[in-house]
Write a structure and sequence with these properties.
By secondary structure, the protein is mainly α. It is 59% helix and 2% strand. The protein has a three-stranded antiparallel sheet. A hairpin with an 8-residue loop joins strand 1 (41-42) and strand 2 (51-52). The two termini are 31 Å apart.
């Protein structure tokens, strides 16, 4: 026996006996488990509803712009006029894609999944950004602003190249939501486009942050290793791609398109329930009593339907909503009526989840900053379910 092994054995023999420990409570999927602290978001099913840094999301959606909400999540306060103007100026200055990213987008197969393109492009940004290793609070903030400005460009440019359309450039007279609408649809300059931009702005505010959801938690786990912010966001995008987290509003839109008319909605959804098919856009892992954000976007979707003189999608939605409450006691989540609004805007369905990223990047980055400002490596335990003990059998004796 070597001296090192012998010393180890002697130490083990002289150690006091280990007391039996109680097996920790196991919650599948970490359901209801408190896995950390955050000052960013409070999810409350009661009258308080959802709050970002103490502000009711209903009030932010009604009175603030998405840029104000992004500033609030990044900097911890609502901006004054000068701060907001400076923030918008900095975003506009960053709304340019580095040439390696342009080259990459030009080489992507047309059939590539938009979330794969976005994930890989963000990873590429991390490789070419000399400031990526800077984990300081200010360094992470600078990186967050770049990502907020560049992700819409990545998404829209890749889509237009894949469809053989000329790319569009951000317009200096438009805000974040107005530019996003323009980059995706080419719409701007009339009252209908302005109304669409306003509803899109509201949806971005509602999607911006939602505590320790799957993608945010994956970002925080990655960030807790003290890797760069780009790596954490790449993790988050990969997590959001999964159909159990992202993509619900795309699936809702597909359902509306399959139904086509209000007259068919009631029968379609009842038949789906009879055949035990899942109706997308209902229920929530945390919000069991209903999603307060849903009512906000529902009101805006109805208003936009009137402005566009097209109530088809909204009428289908309300018919499905009624049946689901009657038959299942389930309430729509944010994705359900958002699909109505996005169909009216003409946003390509395959880009609904990337549009989500354009909003949630604010929450992801704010969580990464919060994690690394007060870091502790996230390393949970697992409940072992394998064999208790196995004796080693020499190779030539195994059957």
């Amino acid at each position: 026996m070597s001296n090192g092994i012998g010393n180890f054995t002697r130490r083990m023999m002289t150690m006091p006996p280990v007391e039996a420990t109680k097996t920790p409570t196991y919650s599948p999927g970490l359901d209801g488990v408190l896995a950390g602290e955050t000052a960013l978001c409070h999810v409350d099913e009661g009258e308080g509803g959802l709050r970002y840094r103490g502000y009711a999301v209903s009030e932010l959606a009604d009175k603030a712009t998405f840029e104000e909400v992004a500033y609030l999540l990044f900097f911890g306060k609502l901006p004054n006029q000068n701060e907001l103007k400076d923030f918008a100026t900095r975003l506009a200055a960053q709304s340019v894609l580095p040439s390696p990213v342009e080259t990459f987008l030009g080489s992507v197969p047309a059939a590539a999944h938009p979330m794969d393109v976005l994930r890989t492009a963000v990873s590429l940004l991390g490789m070419i950004d000399a400031e990526a290793p800077d984990h300081s609070h200010k360094g992470n903030l600078r990186t967050s602003l770049r990502l907020l400005a560049q992700i819409p460009l990545i998404m829209a440019t890749a889509h237009r190249i894949a469809k053989g359309k000329p790319r569009l450039e951000p317009q200096p007279d438009l805000g974040f939501a107005g530019n996003l609408l323009f980059l995706l649809t080419g719409r701007r300059g009339d009252e209908t486009a302005a109304a669409m931009a306003r509803v899109l702005d509201v949806s971005l505010t509602l999607y911006a942050e939602h505590e320790f959801n799957a993608s945010t938690f994956s970002a925080r786990v990655t960030a807790s290793t003290m890797t760069d912010l780009y790596s954490a966001v790449t993790s988050a995008i990969g997590t959001l791609k999964g159909p159990l987290h992202g993509g619900a509003n795309e699936a809702v839109a597909e359902m509306f398109l399959a139904i086509q008319s209000r007259d068919r909605a009631d029968g379609w959804v009842r038949e789906a329930l009879t055949n035990k098919r899942r109706i997308m856009g209902f229920g929530h892992r945390v919000l069991k009593k209903g999603d307060s954000r849903s009512l906000i976007i529902q009101q805006h979707a109805e208003s936009l339907s009137r402005i566009c003189d097209d109530r088809r999608w909204f009428d289908i939605a309300t018919a499905i909503d009624r049946v689901m409450q009657q038959e299942k006691g389930l309430f729509p989540n944010l994705d359900f009526y958002t699909a109505v609004a996005y169909l009216l805007m003409g946003i390509p369905q395959e880009l609904y989840t990337p549009v989500f990223v354009c909003s949630r990047i604010t929450g992801w980055c704010a969580h990464v900053i919060e994690q690394q400002d007060h870091n502790r490596l996230i390393r949970p335990r697992a409940l072992y379910t394998g064999p208790a003990s196995e004796a080693y059998v020499e190779l030539d004796r195994r059957t």
